[in-house]
Amino acid sequence: MAQAGQEKDLLTKIGEVSVQVLGILSLLLVIVWSVHFRGGLAWSIENKGLIFNWHPILMVTAFVFLASEGVLAYRLFPGTHQLKKAIHLTVQLVALIIAAVGITAAFRFHNESKPPIDNLYSLHSWFGVTTYSLFALQWLGGCYTFWYPGAAPPTRSWFLPYHASLGIFIYILALTTASQGILEKLTFLQSGGAIGRRSTETILANCLGLVIFALGGVVLALAPRPKPRGPDPDLPEYRPLE
Ligand code: HEM
Fold it and tell me: Which pTM does this prediction carry?
């Protein structure tokens, strides 16, 4: 019995370390792609491609790296339930702010190119707007219900499983959107002849997609599952299965 418990602890520890390793790896890969292979970053310059390069970096930072930390905040961070809740809320808010700048970079790239490029024509962009809107609504709903002003205890209990399931859905949507973006960018580059189908850049970007989904797999394996409990708002209802 004790051994089974130890194995479970070890597996959990490996999962938690993997989340950090895969998260940092996804950041490194997207930075190397944008900075080394795509020519670097700029916010105000004639070469609008350099403004666009912020988009993948900021979106992966927000909706892959930070969103993963946010989903697992109750498990990864030490402290009281209230503190973990504050971290959960803050990490997701920072993700929303960074993602807003990231999406602005993509719009600026389209609007300021000569001639301008149409906005919101691709499936990726539709998924992107949907992901962002749902992420923002989820944050507002969670903040209102569980933080300030805070709903009545029975309402919290009723809402918690929906908040958790919808959160997981939005997280998967974000990973899917990121991988669509990678595929779309690679397809543009390959069909325009800018890079080869088997180039180092293609391999790196494909690896980025794989790492993002590997991260997602581990996060979902560790993700908190809400257990229906009593109406006491201070009970740590939203916590991982141990
Ligand atoms: C979850 C993360 C992401 C979200 C929410 C997102 C969202 C968006 C949105 C809303 C647009 C439309 C901009 C416009 O129409 O002016 C866009 C454009 C674009 N994004 Fe992303 N993006 C994400 C990640 C990525 C990543 C990782 C890449 C990889 C390079 C990428 C590549 C592109 C490209 C190439 C465009 C321009 C073409 C198009 O409009 O589809 N995106 N993105």
Answer: 0.92
